Amino acid sequence: MSDTSWKAYERRLAKRLGTERIPVTGERNGADALTPMFAYQFKKRSKSTPPSKSLLAWLDGICEAAERAGNGRVGVVVWQRSQGCLDSESLVVLKLEDWEALHRSRQIPDQEAVHGADYTAPASTAGQR
User: Is residue 60 a part of any domain in this protein?
Assistant: First the structure.
């Protein structure tokens, strides 16, 4: 199998994050790399606009892979936003609740019960306009 640019990207990012790339096993939504805290999925894309439906599917998939990997790992998508961008300009995407847990930064109660789980509509609360 040839060493394609996406494989090289995965290898570079895994090394940068202190781990190694996991070879493709054919499992859909598998982790590309694991550390004791995170399960990573790397995405190298040539389009400059984030594919929102795909991004959500990738995030859901890697969160499932992180849960299967155990030890409280956090699912993370690392996405190269366009061809030619430096690796350091890649975007890191994870769920807000995971970010808050990592930083113990949750300041206000979750509004999901009031506003539902619609990811496309912004929630407004009293005092926000």
Answer: yes
Q: 38 — phi, psi (to 5°)?
A: -130, 150
**33-91 per-position pLDDT tens digit:** 999 999 999 988 766 565 678 888 999 999 999 999 999 999 999 988 788 889 999 99
**Distances in whole angstroms, Cα of residue 38 to Cα of each of 16, 43, 72, 95, 120:** 14, 16, 8, 12, 26
Establish if 121 belongs to a structural domain. Answer: no
Domain extent at residue 58: 5-106
- Looking up residue 82, the CATH number of its domain turns out to be 3.40.1350
> How many domains, in total, are found in the chain?
1
Q: What does the block give as tokens for 89?
A: 């300009």
Question: Residue 128: what pLDDT?
Answer: 38
Cα–Cα distance, 41 to 111 (Å, whole number): 28
| pTM for this prediction | 0.64
Length of the chain: 129
